[in-house]
Write a structure and sequence with these properties.
Layout: E1 9-13, H1 26-35, E2 39-43, H2 50-53, E3 59-61, H3 67-72, E4 78-80, H4 92-95, E5 100-102, H5 109-124, H6 127-135, H7 141-146, E6 158-162, H8 168-177, E7 181-185, E8 198-200, H9 205-211, E9 214-217, H10 231-236, E10 242-245
Parallel strand pairs: 1-2, 1-3, 3-4, 4-5, 6-7, 6-9, 7-8, 9-10
Helix pairs in contact: 5-8
Length: 252
């Protein structure tokens, strides 16, 4: 058990992104300070003062912390990322420390899963092609039907999900509700089906590429998922199969 503090716990908040909805709202620090008056909350609008402010911080809310900042933050005990992905924080200075790292893994899953289902419908019904023809004032019923792959129903189609985490599981649930067959690959199949009809281990991923009409990539960034799709696996796919990638790249 940690000894009692003789000073307020210092929380540093520093999350900045061009997309406004990904930033910590201005009211959050005040609400946190009001609810927990025993803490000292510092909310930075950008990263300019991060180097100096992190030195005395015990808790950091951010998705961008550099190795040299970890080395300088002798009091730091906990980093919370407001994103699901934490690959950018997996460096030796943090991994080899006693600092706890947490993320927002369950926050974004349902929203991204809905996006996946929307893309499946858009691809099956050729909605982007229909919109382009409409803009040209072209009645494209025959055009859309003749161009391969044809417009199709998703009921009875097979969706293959790579990764049964906070995104993959709700995708499986929604796909099943729409009458789709669901197959999946997960690192540890013994953890359960996650709502899929069939679950393969990582060594059987080629079978998923062979069977699926829609392949959904929802795996985290790890050494084993890097370049998980290559020319050989693309060649295994059905001629009219579609690939949907909602996983984060290492540079993202």
């Amino acid at each position: 058990m940690n000894p009692p503090h003789d000073h307020p716990i210092r929380i540093l908040i520093c999350v900045r992104h061009p997309f406004d909805q990904w930033n910590v709202p201005d009211w959050f620090a005040g609400r946190l300070q009001q609810k927990f008056p025993q803490v000292n909350v510092v909310h930075l609008p950008g990263y300019k003062r991060m180097d100096e402010e992190i030195v005395g911080a015990e808790i950091v809310i951010s998705w961008s912390v550099r190795p040299e900042q970890i080395a300088a933050a002798k009091k730091l005990r906990w980093i919370h990322s407001t994103a699901a992905a934490v690959h950018q924080l997996i460096f030796p200075e943090l991994v080899n420390s006693d600092i706890i790292l947490t993320n927002a893994r369950e926050v974004h899953g349902p929203v991204v899963a809905e996006h996946v289902i929307a893309l499946i419908f858009a691809l099956a019904k050729k909605i982007p092609d229909s919109a382009r023809l409409q803009e040209k004032h072209v009645w494209g019923q025959q055009i859309l039907w003749d161009e391969l792959p044809r417009i199709r129903e998703i009921g009875g189609a097979t969706v293959g999900i790579v990764g049964l985490g906070s995104i993959g599981r709700p995708v499986a649930k929604s796909a099943k509700a729409l009458g789709m067959r669901v197959i999946a690959v997960r690192e540890h199949p013994e953890k359960g089906s996650g709502g899929a009809d069939t679950v393969f281990g990582p060594t059987q991923i080629d079978e998923l590429f062979r069977q699926a009409d829609y392949i959904v990539l929802a795996a985290p960034v790890t050494a084993s998922t890097k370049a998980i799709v290559n020319a050989e696996r693309l060649a295994l796919m059905k001629p009219d199969a579609c690939l949907i990638n909602v996983g984060r790249g290492a540079g993202g």
